[in-house]
Amino acid sequence: MDELIEKAIKLAKDYLKNSYSPYSGVKVASVAITSSGEMFTGVNVENSSYGLSMCAERVAIFKAVSEGHRDIKTVVIVSNRDGFTYPCGACLQVMSEFNVETVVVTSPNGEVRVHKLGELLPMPFKLK
Ligand code: ZN
């Protein structure tokens, strides 16, 4: 496995503790790796008004974008829930907007799957 991805998985695991998930108990952390190799972390942030909750992947991507990055190459996702945690449809669409190529999902027992974004979102919505 790519050394950068291994480093990102480790970083994401360190951030799981920052997840704000008092309602579901599902902790998710993500790392967005830019085309220049910089890493931005994110965690899921829940809300009493459930619909306002935000996914870890979008937090990580938006942090990167707000720092001026527009090309995000890879997104890594870790969680405390059993099995693999895949991104939701909204996050896949946001990944498409910022040219994500690779999505790395993991399970709590250390299994890793590497996907191309096109496998998970074969026909994204595009205005141009
Ligand atoms: Zn999502």
Question: What's the short story on this structure?
Answer:
With 128 residues, the chain is α+β, with helices and mostly antiparallel strands. It has helices at residues 3-15, 56-66, 89-97, 117-120; strands spanning 28-34, 39-43, 72-79, 102-106, 112-116.
Question: Looking at this structure, what is the CATH superfamily?
Answer: Cytidine Deaminase, domain 2
What is the number of helical segments per DSSP (H or I, 4+ residues)?
4
How far apart the termini lie comes to 34 Å
Radius of gyration: 14 Å
Mean pLDDT across all amino acids: 97
Q: How does the helix and strand content classify structurally?
A: alpha+beta
- Per DSSP E runs of 2 or more residues, the count of β-strands stands at 5
Strand order of the largest sheet: 2-1-3-4-5
Helix proportion = 25-40%
Q: Overall 3D geometry?
A: globular
**Strand residues, percent:** 15-25%
Per CATH, the architecture is 3-Layer(aba) Sandwich
Which segments are poorly predicted (pLDDT under 50) over 5 or more consecutive residues?
none
CATH topology: Cytidine Deaminase, domain 2
The ligands found in this model are:
zinc ion
Order of helices and strands: HEEHEHEEH
